[in-house]
Specification:
There is one protein chain. The strands form 3 sheets. Strands 2, 3, 4, 7, 8 and 9 form a 6-stranded parallel beta sheet that branches. The protein has a 3-stranded mixed beta sheet with strand order 1-11-10, with no helix packed on it. A two-stranded parallel sheet has the order 5-6. The protein has 2 domains: 36 residues; 205 residues, Glycoside hydrolase/deacetylase (TIM Barrel), CATH 3.20.20. The protein is α/β, with parallel strands linked by helices. It contains 10 helices and 11 strands.
């Protein structure tokens, strides 16, 4: 019995030594942690490009107070944008969906009922995607190919399920935080400071100061040499890779 206990203690000490050595190796080789992180399935947060192009995006889930104002401002600058619409919002404001489409903006999916998709089964996720796609296609004649998961919430199941029907999940790398009711100058400064070639910039419709901030943002980016494209035009065709930051990069 004493020999058995002694052997167990020796094995336990050996295991601790191996674990300690492993932790030391990970701390000494942080790139290995990044490499492991890349195994997670990621949406597209931004795109690697040398061109000074960015995509303005707006999530529409509830109110509709400023949709026409956003259309008018973007139209004044001839800037296309991407609007991610919730199916319930489409039900309430079909005339605004048509107005956005008629103005030349890209209309994409933001789920049907705005749930946390990570709490849904794969079948429920597909139901959310297809129900919203059906509603948008019925009004615009174009079926969405992109989705922004509600709350920016995703996991491997969400991403893989989205891609199983040839859609692409889209996040953002520049957050205006307009939903926090920041002032227009604060919103504009956040975006102008954060934008880089290939950025996807997040706004919301019905945010208090977004229409006020938008002209300064567009003017500022134009002065820096940027042009504007939809997300569908920004992202790369196959083949591509997505690095651990969510940046979509040309393969090879």
């Amino acid at each position: 019995m004493k020999v058995f206990v002694l052997r167990r203690r020796m094995l336990s000490l050996a295991a601790c030594a191996v674990a300690a050595a492993g932790m030391f190796w990970l701390v000494s080789h942080p790139n290995a942690v990044g490499a492991a992180a890349t195994e997670r399935q990621l949406p597209i947060y931004c795109v690697q490009t040398e061109e000074k192009v960015v995509a303005l995006t707006f999530d529409a889930a509830w109110g509709n107070e400023d949709t026409q104002q956003l259309i008018d401002i973007l139209g004044q600058y001839n800037v296309p944008a991407t609007f991610f619409l919730v199916g319930d919002w489409v039900d309430h404001y079909p005339e605004s969906v048509k107005a956005l489409s008629d103005a030349g903006h890209s209309i994409q999916n933001h789920s049907n009922t705005h749930p946390y998709l990570t709490q849904c089964s794969a079948d429920t996720i597909l139901s959310e995607l297809n129900a919203c796609n059906d509603k948008i296609e019925a009004i615009t004649g174009v079926r969405p190919t992109l989705i922004r998961p509600p709350y920016g919430d995703y996991n491997d199941t969400v991403v893989n399920t989205i891609r199983s029907i040839d859609m692409e999940p889209i996040q953002w790398d520049v957050d205006s935080l307009d939903w926090k009711e920041l002032s227009a100058p604060e919103i504009a400064q956040r975006v102008l400071d954060g934008a880089q070639p290939g950025s996807i910039i997040l706004f919301h419709n019905a945010a208090l100061h977004t229409p006020e901030a938008l002209p300064d943002i567009i003017d500022g980016l134009m002065q820096e040499g940027y042009s504007f494209v939809t997300v569908a035009d920004l992202i790369l065709d196959q083949p591509y890779t997505i690095d651990h930051t969510g940046r979509q990069c040309p393969a090879g």
